[in-house]
TrEMBL record:
The keyword Metal-binding applies. Belongs to the DinB family. This is Damage-inducible protein DinB. The keyword Nucleotide-binding does not apply. A divalent metal cation binds at residues 37, 119, 123. Pfam families: DinB. InterPro entries: DinB, DinB/YfiT-like. Keywords: Metal-binding. GO terms for molecular function: metal ion binding. PANTHER family: PROTEIN DINB, SLR1116 PROTEIN. It comes from Paenibacillus glacialis.
Amino acid sequence: MKTIQKMFEHLNWANQRILEIFQNVEIGEQQLSLFSHILYSEQVWLTRLKGMDSLQMPIWEDGDITVCAKLIKQNEENFKTFLTEIAKTDLDNLITYTNSSGKEFMTSIRDILTHVALHGQYHRGQINSRLRVDGIDPVNIDYITFVR
């Protein structure tokens, strides 16, 4: 559980660093779309982890910097609460959920939480690649930088 909590601390830190660069430079539509996708996906997965229906929730939704800042704050608070509440739960318990295509799956809490952390890092890497193409220095969001 300590590793998962640390991964989510990193996730929040990395999201905040991306937000800060977006607030200070002109960014393209693709970067903003990827970033809002990360944040909306975090909400969808948390909803699924809580056993609630996520079918009507957006995954790819246009957003702006203000919306992204709000989502970061909400997601950080909601995941902190969730991780605190499940601290004594067996992380290998299975969650049943329906994906955005309507297909039902069963996945462990551990695997879902790991996916959420890795999914965001994957897309933040895409954002950094696009920033570089646009002549903007990428944001250092490496885990090792976070723990230093």
